[in-house]
Specification:
187 residues; seven-stranded mixed sheet; 7 strands
Length: 187
């Protein structure tokens, strides 16, 4: 009878291709890198040596000055291997502000220096050099990647509305779901 560890090895033998990088569990292969005061999770693969295959940031971009956010994206892009991906999660400007200023201002003026829309993030990613962008959406334990054009279309419908109406709309789960910025850029 095989042990649990041996069974795990058998399950992974299906796609044994030494040229294909594999993502390892975060506990073994994630490391926290620090560059220019900006912290970003970087995933590394033994197949690619020290070149990261993915990077991840959650609720970071809105805290950076717009000039620094461009530098942060450039650093991530420069660090990734060709074909690498960057997962970026940040609140959507159209449903905000998402900091303390939500109680007294229609735009972020507190700890969030700039909140972005999907369209703005898509543009910055492309200016930085990322070949493609997608939005990732979670359904239970599954992630689905969708084109940014759907989300940009929803933003174009909502942006002209008065701030108070936009805020009311964002209480709707579907609208709130469509306005979350979870963008993935591929180098």
């Amino acid at each position: 009878m095989a042990t649990e560890e041996e069974n795990d090895d058998d399950d992974n033998d299906d796609d044994d291709d030494e040229t294909t990088p594999r993502l390892q569990p975060a506990s073994r292969k994630m490391q926290f890198l620090d560059g220019n005061g900006v912290r970003t999770w970087i995933q590394q693969s033994a197949c690619w040596g020290d070149t990261p295959i993915s990077a991840y940031s959650n609720q970071l971009m809105e805290h950076l000055h717009p000039d620094d956010s461009l530098k942060q994206l450039q650093n991530v892009y420069r660090t990734l291997k060709p074909g690498g991906i960057y997962f970026c999660v940040t609140p959507n400007r159209l449903s905000g502000p998402h900091d303390i200023s939500r109680t007294f201002d229609p735009v972020a003026t507190g700890l969030h220096l700039k909140e972005y829309t999907v369209g703005e993030m898509d543009q910055i990613f492309k200016e930085t050099g990322f070949l493609s962008t997608r939005i990732y959406v979670r359904f239970g334990e599954y992630f689905v990647f969708l084109p940014t054009c759907l989300f940009k279309f929803v933003e174009q419908l909502i942006e002209p509305l008065p701030h108070t109406m936009r805020k009311l709309l964002t209480f709707n789960r579907i609208v709130k779901f469509l306005l979350g910025v979870k963008i993935v850029g591929k180098k």
